[in-house]
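Might I ask for a little of your time on a matter of protein folding? The record follows directly beneath this note:
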Amino acid sequence: MKILIAEDELTTRMLVQVSLENWGYRVESVVNGQEAWLALKQKDAAHIAILDWEMPELDGPEVCRRMKEMGEGNSPYIILLTGRDSDNDIVKGFDAGADDYMTKPFNDNELRARVRVAERMVRTQNSLSDSVTELKEVLNHLEMIREGVAVCQSCCHILSNDDDQWYSIEESVKNQDDPRFIQTVCPSCTQE
């Protein structure tokens, strides 16, 4: 699983990166909020992002807000890593869209535990997203099945699709255009 670290302080960034790499994660690291924002908008963006609160250009909560506004279905799981530990700051971080919050100095065991929770959440979200996609596909097929098939009752017996285009049964079966047609062999042809 890929994890993005956005931290302007070199020592903290390296400590987090080395720990994550030792635990088997692929790590991308950046030094400011603008780079984090650009990295998270990419098609192959990290699944988990660990963002410092106070960074040059864009701060961590602003990156969280922008991700939240994008409204992508599978946005990354965001952990804010910061020296700020007041109740007010924690609430602000979560309100901005962070999924978790850790204070510095951080403990390796706590970081590992929180990243594991993030990984479980990402896997669950991806599984749910895949299930929703499959369900939509099944519903589309059921809708097609529920609708009738227009067949020319004259001698040609061609079919009409939703776009009012006509085609033969053979074309539909060959192209697998319609889930209502299942290719099989009848008992008479099996005996031949």
